[in-house]
Structures are given as structure tokens and as C-alpha cells.
Backbone:
């Protein structure tokens, strides 16, 4: 399939986006590499404490993106994602509530819950990318979030299973729910990108949004490394 006025095949675009995620330094961050063989309970709590703030902003990013466009096809997918993130109308099933329940189960001390400066910078950069352009937003929200999160949570889940053999911890359903959601959301957003990116300009914007968001995510892990 070739888009209008473009020499780039749409399928090539999806492969470029995936490859940019797969080869980005964020997945080889020293913190992620460390926890693959030596995840501690404190590491887990540290990661989840910052993911808490990302989860809060995550829904806002999709709402901002849907506001930035009047394209119904784009809005449908973005709002569907918001609806699912919010538990399809059931508060207890929303991502943030599932995360809080997991934090409770591992006895997290909420008095230490504070967003690191690097986490704040990551969140600010993401919001700016999404506000800049709807196609940049699609790159930032699809490959650089849903697709990336699937890989990040996959690494954490494997490490968690190893940690669970040493510590009295709850089952890994928290990770399983997230991995399942990320897989479904990732596929929907890639299909949307295939559908709406019909010019080189749009495709370049999606690629740029993806790369910028990946660079921003690196700040998140820099924060974990410094604490």
C-alpha cells in the first residue's frame, strides 16, 4: 500500500517505527539492564512510584491529542483507549486503581510518593510533543508508549517472577493485565497510523514524535538511576 503523494510504503513506516523503538537506548538503560538479573523489592517500589505519575498523565495525553484533531477516525481510537484506561466506566478497573492496589499489596509507603525531577521533565516533554502536532502525538502515544510499554513491562514481569521466588509477593496479574492492554492498544494505534498517514509529511511527523518521546522516556530511567 502506498499513500497519496508519497514514495514511502505504509508498511515500511510501521517497521521503521518499531525498529526505532527496538533499537533505542532507552531499552538498554543501565537501570533496566540491572533489574533483569537483580531486581529488589525496593527497585520495584521505586519504578512503580514513578509509573504512578505517568499513569495519571497518560489519560490526559490521549485527551489532549483527541482535542488537537477533528479527524473522527483518530478520535475514535484515542477515546477508546481512554475509556479502556479508565476501566470502561468501572473505577476499580482503571489502570491507576489497579496500580494503587498493587502498591498496597507490596506494602508501599505512600509518604515517600513524590515525582522525581526527571519524571516531571519526561511528563512535560511528552505533553509538549502531543500538543505540537496530532501526527507527532500518534508517534509518541503509539510506538513510543503502548509498544514500548509492552517491552518494558515484559522485562519487569520476568524480573518480578524471579524476585517472587525470594520474597512473599502477590501474583503477577498486575503485569499480565498491563501486557494484555498494551498489546491491544499497540495494535489499534499502529492500524490507525497505517490508515491516516497518507503523505510523507505525516509519516515524518509520526517518526519524529516517536523518536522525541523515546528520548524523553530516557529521562524517566535516568531518574531511577539517580535515586
Residues:
Amino acid at each position: 500500500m502506498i499513500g497519496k503523494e508519497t514514495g514511502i510504503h505504509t508498511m515500511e513506516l510501521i517497521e521503521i517505527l518499531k525498529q526505532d523503538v527496538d533499537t533505542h537506548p532507552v531499552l538498554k538503560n543501565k537501570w533496566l539492564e540491572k533489574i533483569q538479573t537483580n531486581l529488589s523489592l525496593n527497585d520495584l517500589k521505586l519504578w512503580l512510584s514513578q509509573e504512578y505519575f505517568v499513569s495519571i498523565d497518560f489519560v490526559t495525553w490521549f485527551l489532549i491529542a483527541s482535542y488537537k484533531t477533528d479527524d473522527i477516525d483518530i478520535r475514535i481510537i484515542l477515546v477508546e483507549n481512554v475509556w479502556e484506561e479508565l476501566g470502561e466506566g468501572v473505577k476499580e478497573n482503571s489502570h491507576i486503581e489497579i496500580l494503587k492496589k498493587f502498591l498496597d499489596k507490596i506494602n508501599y509507603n505512600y509518604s515517600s510518593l513524590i515525582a522525581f525531577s526527571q519524571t516531571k521533565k519526561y511528563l512535560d516533554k511528552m505533553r509538549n510533543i502531543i500538543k505540537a502536532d496530532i501526527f507527532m502525538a500518534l508517534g509518541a502515544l503509539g510506538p513510543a508508549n503502548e509498544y514500548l510499554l509492552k517491552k518494558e513491562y515484559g522485562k519487569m514481569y520476568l524480573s518480578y517472577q524471579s524476585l517472587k521466588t525470594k520474597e512473599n509477593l502477590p501474583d503477577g496479574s498486575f503485569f499480565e493485565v498491563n501486557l494484555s492492554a498494551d498489546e491491544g492498544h499497540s495494535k489499534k494505534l499502529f492500524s490507525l497510523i497505517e490508515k491516516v498517514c497518507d503523505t510523507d509529511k505525516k509519516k515524518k511527523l509520526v517518526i519524529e514524535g516517536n523518536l522525541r518521546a523515546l528520548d524523553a522516556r530516557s529521562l524517566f530511567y535516568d531518574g531511577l538511576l539517580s535515586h
Notes: Confidence is low (pLDDT under 50) at residues 1-6. The CA atoms of residues 118 and 226 lie 9 Å apart. The longest helix spans residues 134-164. DSSP finds nine helices and no strands in the chain.
